[in-house]
């Protein structure tokens, strides 16, 4: 019993010492920072302030530039010709190829409207697939909805139907945000290694199976068996 008590005491002392050491390191670091600031003369402080102001100004200018190019809102573009112009002037573009009669396109619209406001660094567009046969053929779009994810004028990736989004109509905006983050088409702050739908147990095995039908190059809905 005596030996056990002694070893507990030793452990406690070691632990207390560790905590004290850590606190000391933090304190020394803070002291050094304060000292650095104290030793700065007026000119150095002014330069630091200027640098911060410039960084702030630059970020505001960037934001204004994005807004002037139509970022910050989810917009429909009227024609294929507009698509090329829009894509040319923005680094990151998400374009939803939709069809009025496809229910899943409305689900996609709802999430994209939210993300367009949140991710001002990316342009969010929608284009009627039936009015853009040339583009659909060129980009090999066979299933509706499809998102074309474009960086520097080149289509890098596609989100086809809801397959990558947990295979369900009930996917969250966070899940779509994660998928766009995987393609590096938005500035994603979460952990790419942890898809949000993995933690949503309610989906379990009750996934809605999506059918991809591409007969003779025709475009099919991901939520119906007929055209």
Automatic annotation (TrEMBL):
Domain of life from the UniProt record: Eukaryota
Annotated InterPro entries: Thioredoxin-like_sf, Thioredoxin_domain
Source organism of the structure: Hypocryptadius cinnamomeus
Keyword Phosphoprotein attached: yes
PANTHER family noted in UniProt: THIOREDOXIN DOMAIN-CONTAINING PROTEIN 9
GO cellular component, as recorded: centrosome; cytoplasm; midbody; nucleus
Quaternary structure note: Forms ternary complexes with the chaperonin TCP1 complex, spanning the cylindrical chaperonin cavity and contacting at least 2 subunits.
Span of domain Thioredoxin: 80-163
Free-text function comment from the UniProt entry: Significantly diminishes the chaperonin TCP1 complex ATPase activity, thus negatively impacts protein folding, including that of actin or tubulin.
Protein name, UniProt field: Thioredoxin domain-containing protein 9
Subcellular location per the Swiss-Prot or TrEMBL entry: Cytoplasm, Cytoskeleton, Microtubule organizing center, Centrosome; Midbody; Nucleus
Database matches in Pfam families: Thioredoxin
Main subcellular location: cytoplasm
Keywords, alphabetical: Cytoplasm, Cytoskeleton, Nucleus, Phosphoprotein
């Amino acid at each position: 019993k005596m030996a056990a008590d002694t070893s507990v005491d030793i452990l406690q002392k070691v632990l207390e010492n560790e905590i004290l050491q850590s606190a000391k390191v933090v304190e020394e670091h803070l002291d050094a920072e304060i000292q650095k600031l104290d030793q700065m003369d007026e000119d150095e402080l002014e330069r630091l302030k200027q640098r911060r102001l410039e960084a702030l100004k630059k970020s505001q200018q960037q934001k204004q530039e994005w807004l002037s190019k139509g970022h910050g809102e989810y917009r429909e573009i009227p024609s294929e010709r507009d698509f090329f112009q829009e894509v040319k002037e923005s680094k990151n573009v998400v374009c939803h190829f939709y069809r009025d009669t496809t229910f899943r396109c409305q689900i996609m619209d709802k999430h994209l409207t939210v993300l367009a406001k949140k991710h001002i660094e990316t342009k969010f567009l929608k284009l009627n697939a039936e009015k853009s046969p040339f583009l659909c053929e060129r980009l090999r779009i066979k299933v509706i909805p499809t998102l074309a994810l474009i960086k520097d004028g080149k289509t890098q990736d596609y989100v086809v139907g809801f397959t990558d989004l947990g295979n369900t109509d009930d996917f969250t905006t966070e899940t779509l945000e994660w998928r766009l983050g995987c393609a590096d088409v938005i500035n994603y702050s979460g952990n790419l290694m942890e898809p949000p739908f993995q933690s949503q147990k309610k989906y379990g095995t009750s996934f809605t199976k999506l059918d991809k039908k591409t007969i003779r190059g025709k475009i099919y809905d991901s939520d119906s068996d007929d055209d």
